């Protein structure tokens, strides 16, 4: 079984609160962990498309990552816009957290299912989009292409994880979706959207790809079943 939930926003230090987005965020970590333990078995996989920990440094994020590592199942991550602690794959692997896999210019394989992804970026038609954003946007497109190209060609099901919604402000697919189409992606999961941002959620099949938003508050802090053999 493959589950998914994004935007954990864990904070081991308890210095960062998420209830500015609503009372539903009160004790949200406890809600997620409780459901996780109820649903997930050790042989299952949980996909987390970014915004994992509020920590700024890797040594501080370790405490949140260790909590996730101790939960049942295997876990695969991509970087979110708040994951400032994210470092090189080598540095993160050196933490020796046994059940975690970090995706950046690589891919994860679970049985005969391939998973790739990248953070993504804000839509080009945002009012604030500038030259710096364009540089990041192009880099993220390349990272998505690099990652998806690492998925074995004989995988029977392919999943793309992206933190930012791969849609423009008119809720139409953007260039990230074009890359996904090139690699015959079956399912795309994303997060990032909270509270009033849920009005920008786009789900369902578009151009042969099933899109699902799995931001934690959108799921009411319950892991979503994404794939079952």
Automatic annotation (TrEMBL):
Molecular function per GO: 3',5'-cyclic-nucleotide phosphodiesterase activity
Keyword Hydrolase belongs to the record: yes
Pfam families (UniProt xref): Metallophos
Highest taxon of the lineage: Bacteria
Record domain Calcineurin-like phosphoesterase: where: 2-195
Keyword vocabulary terms for this entry: Hydrolase
EC number: 3.1.4.17
Hydrolase among keywords: yes
The protein's enzyme class: hydrolase
Membrane-spanning ranges: none
Official protein name in the record: 3',5'-cyclic adenosine monophosphate phosphodiesterase CpdA
Species of origin: Tissierella creatinophila DSM 6911
Gene field: cpdA_1
